[in-house]
Design brief:
This protein is of the alpha+beta class. The protein has a single domain, classed as Bifunctional nuclease domain, CATH 3.10.690.10. Helices cover 33% and strands 37% of the residues. The protein has 6 helices and 8 strands, in the order E-E-E-H-H-E-E-E-H-E-H-E-H-H. A hairpin with a 6-residue loop joins strand 1 and strand 2. Helix 1 runs parallel beside helix 3. The radius of gyration is 16 Å and the shape is globular. The C terminus is likely disordered.
Length: 161
């Protein structure tokens, strides 16, 4: 079982000074932070802000290669949380076949943004991670901010380079 998520934003972990991608499910009930590398965060931020670079970045190059070979990114799925590391799979559609490509979540997210592909997270990852469930009627922005600031990489999965 998988739930669709969107990127809510990027932030810096105040303790480790590492970037965190904040995913939010489409029903806006759950936030899921994933620590990422600085270069991957930059690639994600550039696409969120719709900033064009003078030359293609790695994820732009990958998108162009896929287009050249008539392959389409169907979706990306954050599939696993193991030893404090998230794992993802890119689902490519080519010539009527779905191909599964192992990926770091940050690279998969950067590619999904460039190809307008949906982002999914498995129920297993949601259950095993330290996420926050949002009750819209009782949502306190200060509580969410405090939760994010108090997260530690070992609490839910540090992105490993």
């Amino acid at each position: 079982m998988q739930k669709e998520f969107k990127i809510k934003g990027l932030m810096m972990d105040p303790i480790t000074n590492s970037p965190i991608v904040i995913l939010q499910d489409v029903e806006k009930n759950t936030l899921l932070p994933i620590w990422v590398g600085i270069f991957e965060a930059n690639a994600i931020a550039l696409q969120i802000e719709r900033i064009d670079t003078p030359r293609p970045m790695t994820h732009d190059l990958l998108k162009n290669v896929l287009l050249h070979f008539d392959a389409e990114v169907e979706k990306i799925v954050v599939t696993q949380l193991k030893d404090n590391t998230f794992y993802a799979v890119i689902h490519l559609l080519r010539e009527g076949r779905t191909l599964l490509i192992d990926s770091r979540p940050s690279d998969a997210i950067a590619l999904a943004l460039r190809t307008d592909a949906p982002i999914f997270v498995t129920e297993e990852v949601i259950q095993n991670s330290r996420n926050i469930t949002l009750d819209k009627d009782k949502l306190d922005p200060d509580e969410v901010r405090q939760w994010l600031e108090n997260l530690k990489p070992e609490d839910l999965g540090k992105y490993k380079m």
